């Protein structure tokens, strides 16, 4: 039996702003909603909400994009969209969320409707820099607003221009050894330790994506719960593939500790109180050349966030330049960092994990 996988990167459809955005976003959202078994009324809710978000981007955003995917938490599934733009920002968020009042004619139109329709909604806006809006629609009422084992994890991947498949991927699972995990995956006992992986398959395109898929399969199946041992399993599994840069972290927010081991250009950070602690990787290629592994440990207080990303993002971002961001949902944190630190000449992968606040 494998340790329970809490959540993994899913295929994302990225839609750029053009005249057809609202229509294509609506169509894709409906397709995903039907696929996870949402009822007709919830399919309509997803369609209305994503149309509002897309129309907003079309009218007001500079360099906007809409990401659509199925997101999973254990056995539960949701349709999720993330609308992100570089633009004016929303100067007065509360009135924008109050819908149809003073927000008329600004980027905030329709936000109140999206917030009411969605099971989970979050937003972060930086005046003069940009905004990220996130909305989730869960299948099954009991899954709504439920957190996997006290953890809020959210990541984003985006392939380099011209490619359909992404070589960057991530996964999160319980750090209990197989066979010893509680039947509920740890949900009853609060935030149990978790293992997080960020993988950058070498190059890009189908072969890089294949390396990522092999890494995820091995990550699901490993019996180990410590980063270095997990990396050794990934190394064995990735022989015969292109290889990858991979970081694995063991995050125990309840105990206040993080262990991090990385090979190749994958960044790891612990963010707390506006400060960023770098966790270092060593040079090498998982699947080809394993260096002598090292594990870095850091204290992770209950309000801290673990951030890991591939070299498709610049590592020069700083938490102080994102006021108010790190208390938002992890997917929103990922999207705002991606928006400002992500380049266009490589696959991109970013994952943020933190404990949910009691
Ligand atoms: Mn890369």
TrEMBL record:
Lineage: superkingdom: Bacteria
Q: Which UniProt keywords apply?
A: Kinase, Serine/threonine-protein kinase, Transferase
A GO molecular function held by the record: protein serine/threonine kinase activity
Q: Which SUPFAM superfamilies match?
A: ATPase domain of HSP90 chaperone/DNA topoisomerase II/histidine kinase, PP2C-like
InterPro entries the UniProt entry points to: HATPase_C_sf, HATPase_dom, PPM-type-like_dom_sf, PPM-type_phosphatase-like_dom, Ptase_RsbX
Against Pfam families, the record matches this protein to:
HATPase_c_2, SpoIIE
User: Does the keyword field hold Transferase?
Assistant: yes
Q: Which residues form the PPM-type phosphatase domain?
A: 174-355
Q: Which Gene3D superfamilies match?
A: Histidine kinase-like ATPase, C-terminal domain, PPM-type phosphatase domain
Protein name stated in the entry:
Serine/threonine protein kinase
According to its UniProt entry, this protein's organism is: Streptomyces solincola
Q: Cite the source lineage.
A: Bacteria, Bacillati, Actinomycetota, Actinomycetes, Kitasatosporales
